[in-house]
Design brief:
Layout: E1 10-14, E2 20-24, H1 32-41, E3 45-47, H2 52-64, H3 77-82, H4 87-100, H5 103-117, H6 122-128, E4 132-136, E5 142-146, H7 147-150, H8 154-163, E6 174-175, H9 180-192, H10 203-208, H11 213-225, H12 232-245
Parallel strand pairs: 1-3, 4-6
Antiparallel strand pairs: 1-2, 4-5
Helix pairs in contact: 2-4, 4-5, 9-11, 11-12
Protein name: SKP1 component POZ domain-containing protein
Keywords: Ubl conjugation pathway
GO biological process, one term: ubiquitin-dependent protein catabolic process
C-alpha cells in the first residue's frame, strides 16, 4: 500500500432509542458536537442525544454534502426536496440539528420556518412549529392547544402530568370524553384568555357563547368536566340566564 494512502474511517452514531447509524469521515465533519466527541474520546462509536428518525435524516443530508457546504448558498433541487416536510417535522429536525450542532441544517430550518410564520399570529406560529398539545375528542376530531391555553383546564393539566404527555404529541393525543362541538368552543375560549387573569366577559365571549340553551348546556357540562378555570363556567351561566329571560 502506498504510504501516502489514507484509510477513511466510518463512525457509528447511537440514537436515544437504541439504534445505530453509520456516517463517513467526510460527512461527520458537519456534526460539530460529534467531531468534538471523536477528538476527545478517540472512539468510533458515539452516542448522541437524538432520536433515530431525525438522526437518519441528518446523516443523509451530511452524506449528500460530504464534499462541502457553504452556509447561505442557494438551495439546490435536492435540498428543496429534502426540506419539503410538515412544519412540526422540521422543528423536530431543527432541534436534533441543534443538539448535534449541524450548522447548514439549523440555518435552512430556521430560515424556512421564519419565512412561513412571518405573517402568522403567535398562536399559529406555536402550532405550526409543533409547540402545542394534540387533543382528540370523543367523536374522533383532533384539535391543537398551545401550552398556556392548556393550563386553563385542570383536567388537561393533570392528564399531561399523570401520563407523561409533552408538546408535539400528535402520535399520542390527549383523549377527552367530550364531543367535538362543545370542545371546540372551550378550546377557542382558552386560547383567547390564556394570558389573562382575571378574565372579564367581553363582546368576544358573548359572541362565542351566543347559542341555544341545549348547546350552552353541553358546553357547560364539558367545561365542568375539563375543570376549566378563569370564569368560563360563570360566563356560560350568565348567558343561560339571559337566554331564559329573553
Amino acid at each position: 500500500m502506498n504510504s501516502s494512502t489514507r484509510i477513511c474511517t466510518n463512525y457509528m452514531l447511537q440514537s436515544t432509542d437504541g439504534k445505530s447509524t453509520w456516517i463517513s469521515e467526510s460527512a461527520v465533519k458537519h456534526l460539530e458536537n460529534v467531531m468534538h466527541a471523536i477528538k476527545t474520546t478517540r472512539h468510533t462509536t458515539i452516542p448522541v442525544n437524538v432520536a433515530d428518525a431525525e438522526l437518519k435524516q441528518i446523516v443523509r443530508f451530511c452524506e449528500h454534502h460530504k464534499d462541502g457546504y457553504t452556509l447561505y448558498q442557494p438551495l439546490t433541487q435536492w435540498d428543496r426536496q429534502f426540506f419539503s416536510m410538515e412544519d412540526s417535522k422540521m422543528m423536530d429536525l431543527l432541534m436534533a440539528a441543534t443538539e448535534l450542532f449541524v450548522a447548514p441544517i439549523m440555518n435552512i430550518c430556521f430560515q424556512t420556518l421564519t419565512n412561513k410564520t412571518r405573517n402568522m399570529s403567535t398562536e399559529d406560529k406555536l402550532k405550526a412549529c409543533g409547540l402545542c398539545y394534540s387533543i382528540l375528542s370523543k367523536d374522533g376530531q383532533q384539535f391543537e392547544l398551545t401550552e398556556n391555553a392548556a393550563k386553563l383546564s385542570g383536567f388537561i393539566s393533570a392528564y399531561k402530568s399523570t401520563n407523561g404527555i409533552y408538546l408535539n404529541n400528535k402520535a399520542n393525543p390527549i383523549l377527552l370524553d367530550v364531543m367535538a362541538a362543545p370542545l371546540s368552543i372551550i378550546l377557542k375560549w382558552c386560547e383567547q384568555h390564556k394570558m389573562e387573569k382575571p378574565v372579564v366577559m367581553t363582546s368576544w365571549d358573548k359572541e362565542l357563547l351566543t347559542m341555544g340553551m341545549p348547546e350552552l348546556t353541553q358546553v357547560l357540562c364539558a367545561a365542568n368536566a375539563l375543570d376549566v378555570k378563569g370564569g368560563l363556567v360563570n360566563m356560560i351561566i350568565e348567558m343561560m340566564g339571559q337566554a331564559v329571560s329573553s
